[in-house]
Design a protein that fits this description.
The structure holds 2 protein chains of 2 kinds.
Chain A: H1 3-22, E1 29-34, H2 49-55, E2 61-62, E3 64-66, E4 73-75, E5 78-85, E6 88-93, H3 107-118, E7 135-141, E8 144-149, H4 156-159, E9 164-165, E10 185-190, E11 195-199, E12 212-217, H5 221-229, E13 235-239, E14 250-263, H6 273-281, H7 285-289, E15 297-298, H8 321-333, E16 342-347, H9 354-367, E17 372-377, H10 379-386, E18 397-404, H11 414-418, H12 430-441, H13 444-461, E19 465-477, E20 481-482, E21 499-500
Parallel strand pairs in A: 1-12, 16-17, 16-18
Antiparallel strand pairs in A: 2-9, 3-4, 5-6, 6-8, 7-8, 10-11, 11-12, 13-19, 14-18, 14-19, 15-19, 20-21
Helix pairs in contact in A: 6-8, 12-13
Chain B: H1 2-30, H2 35-38, H3 45-54, H4 61-73, H5 87-122, H6 127-141, H7 144-158, H8 171-200, H9 203-210, H10 215-243, H11 247-253, H12 258-267, H13 271-299
Helix pairs in contact in B: 1-13, 5-6, 5-8, 5-10, 5-13, 6-8, 7-8, 7-11, 8-10, 10-13, 11-12, 12-13
Classes of the chains: A alpha+beta, B mainly alpha.
Amino acid sequence: MGNKSVRVIAGAMVVAGWAGYAAAQSASEIKIVLPEQPANLEPCGTIITNVGQILSRNVVEPLTIIDPKSGQPTPGLATEWKQTDPNTWQLKLREGVKFQDGASFNADAVKFSIERMTGGKLTCSNIAKFGDAKLTVTPIDDLTVEIKSDTPQPILPTLLSVVMIVSPNTPADKAVNDPVGTGPFKLSSFTPQTVVLEAFDGYWGEKPHITKASYVWRPESSIRAAMVETGEADLTPSIAIQDATNPKTDFAYLNSETTAIRIDAGFAPLDDVRIRKALNLAIDWDGLAQLFGEDVQRASQMVVTGINGHDDKLAPWTFDAEKARALIAEAKAAGVPVDTEIELIGRNGIYPNGTEAMEAMMAMWQDVGLNVKLTMLDVNDWLRYLQKPFPESRGPNLLQMMHDNNKGDAAFTVPIFYTSGGSYSTFNDAGLDKEVADAMAATGEDRTARFKAIFAKVHDDLAVDIPMFHMIGYTRVGSRLEWKPDITTNSEIPLANIALKD
Amino acid sequence: MMLGYIGRRAYHSVISVIGLLTLVFFLTRLTGDPSALYLPLDSSLEARQAFARLNGLDQPIYVQFFQYLQNLMSLDFGQSLRQNRSAIEVALEAFPATLKLALVAMTLATVLAIVVGALAAARPGSLFDRVAGLVSLAGASTPDFWIAIVGILVFAVGLGMLPTSGTGTALHWIMPIVVLMLRPFGLLVQVVRGTMISALASPFIKTAHAKGMKRRKIIFGHALRNSLLPVITVAGDLATGLINGAVVVETIFGWPGIGKLMIDSIIQRDFAVVQSTILVTAIAIFIVNIAIDLLYAVLDPRIRY
């Protein structure tokens, strides 16, 4: 082969490469770049961010959908619901819905999907939202179903937003990577490099603008941002603050995550309310906020606005080092061992600048006279301190944490954080347990008021924890798309809501 | 003779692999119960216990180990907890991407390093030697993640000549290969140059000069062949490093290789995948090492097995 031939072949390869690279997308196809590869595509795991962002309301649909503004359930595959007694709800199902494999959506399909979730034969993350409740599903007729729980479920319609309905042909005894649902898109392929969804012609609802969506994943935020900037991708849901440099394409949004420090109230000096209040007062919150960007919101409670039970009027602690010192001195005078070493336990990579935040807070607490030492742990070690049973060898400790509740109700937060039996709780207060139980059983405005009262009590009176900030996410949206992120973006990106600019 | 040597090395390798897998099995279990990582943070204790039961993690570790050995006998390498599928399938799917990248990068790095190193050694202290020394030192010592990100900013974002990352076209290969080959190229240029300078000072080279042999033939025909053994040793070492997975390059460029898979599996405590990726890479490394030993014999007739 002569030199000329070699040059021709090499030139052709490069041109072919450029052509293939340039013709990556057509007008109604989009590419979304996610931070992480989805480990699997099991519909029972849609509360996991990278699974939910692909599947939820695209391939599989829930019975109800939480309105991001009001936090209230709205119709999904269930169109109406009513509570017939404290433990029983009756649901009317949507007519004329087909699964992507041709099966009909009906009461039997709902029974199958819920029993698949609760059957214990596969790992189902979504079921965690139901706690220990035992559900019995009974079809009343083809499009009416009754769901009975062994304990009262006043917010069952809210909980049903995590029940993804799958085709009755789905294996009931093992997790799947080829989900079949009723959504506007069906799974076309899932490889280690990409997931491709294609529009489902038999969808019951309005036809989406997009005909095909490809998902790829890059862990580096700067690469994801660059991919949207160069037009290689159209959207990336989570970029670092330092990469959100273009106001035309980068949107900040309240992402439903709240950062906090949990106080282990089981050990002195942390069992003294004065010390817990001093911990809240000793932090220069405005200074600390600089680590997280100007859009971050100071938190006074563990749920964001829009979640039922959130109290807009509950003011966060403000920085007052002198008052913190005075409280510590008062506690010391009363015999509290304020010099005892307190371990501040952080988690590597929990959120951007998380380690720097812990170092700054440790310094501020030391400044008011508390003996705080920082230990950073990897996730598995850190989990031992987060969830019960806690390590027996632990002493007084403060735990860095982040909580995500975008499910519309404080019920997904309050019991695990503040009741004696809560899996994160270090607090044992029978009075508080009773108040939480009453709030959980209440409905309507009474429920809202009770949760607000609990948040006020744990914040103002008991100072159970140290709420830090309601976090902000940054999303880069390419110039072809008409779409803005909201509080639900961390758990779903419904393609049907994305419009294409002309 | 040679076949006997390969047989002995293969036999020793099998023993090493079994030892390695045993060690990895127990070391991974020491990192703790993975159920907390696979379930939502607000899962109940009962749910976590059910997860452990479902995946056999509630059994004593020796029972799990014997079960693992028993499954190995029937070539069952276990299920990936994360991906709901066979762990060996996951590992074997990722390995070719790493292998292809490593093969191209190492071939280019070695060939270029031999040419540049030999030419630099032929005229020590010349401008070419100094430029080669500077470039090779820079290549060997610059962090690859920095080069990768700067490369993306310049060639993808700035000039729009290359894609930022991913796979699919010939252009997607350019940046990962260049980034991956820089370090081996830099190190090998230094090694080739050093060994060539020694070889060029040898009496047999002086004899070749005295016989009036052409300079190019002396450098590439005689001196280079005698300098290659240390180069192959270093290149083999670097190649096994790349086969193990080019984690940084795979992460930044979204290359679906075995290095990133291995790290992700370790972080996620996906035990079966950790074991499978280590098995696959260990076998590949043993094969490379045997190939290097055989190459020694080809290059130096004095070596016999």
